[in-house]
Design brief:
Length: 151
């Protein structure tokens, strides 16, 4: 299932075509891939078609884009485990925009909880995305966990 972050602006019809168009036409940069964090420099996606196919095939894809601009367009694949939302793949059209990506991933956790009705209590994100750290964040190596109620 593909979940647009702004369902009132984007409808599900044609969403895969729009996703493919964006990934193929605009450069995208990898922020997180299978717990490898790209904080110094985000590499550009080398094979956009392969990347599109990963997102299209995942049942846990969440998309963030506006109908007004595509300057910021975060795409992520989330995972649920022990009432915690974490992310396996995060890409964006902008480089070095950690605050924007952090905000979108927090919204994704809320969307999984309230939109998809899953039992979510925590979100786990790369520590470098969350700086400055909130006092209620629990540091776990290169990642932080935070209760959704504390956001």
């Amino acid at each position: 299932m593909i979940t647009p972050a702004y369902p009132n602006q984007r409808r599900h019809e044609g969403i895969l075509e729009e996703l493919k168009r964006q990934i193929m036409e605009y450069p995208h940069y990898i922020y997180l891939e299978e717990e490898e964090i790209f904080s110094a420099e985000q590499p550009r996606i080398a094979n956009p078609l392969d990347c599109y196919e990963v997102f299209a095939a995942s049942p846990n894809t969440v998309l963030f884009w506006s109908s007004k601009t595509c300057l910021h367009s975060t795409k992520a694949i989330y995972r649920m485990q022990d009432r915690t939302v974490s992310f396996d793949l995060v890409i964006d059209m902008a480089q070095e925009d950690f605050n924007w990506v952090f905000r979108n991933l927090c919204l994704a956790a809320f969307g999984v909880r309230f939109g998809l009705k899953q039992k979510v209590e925590w979100v786990k994100l790369p520590k470098c995305f969350a700086e400055p750290l909130h006092p209620k964040m629990i540091v776990e190596g290169e990642f932080v966990r935070m209760k959704l109620e504390d956001m």
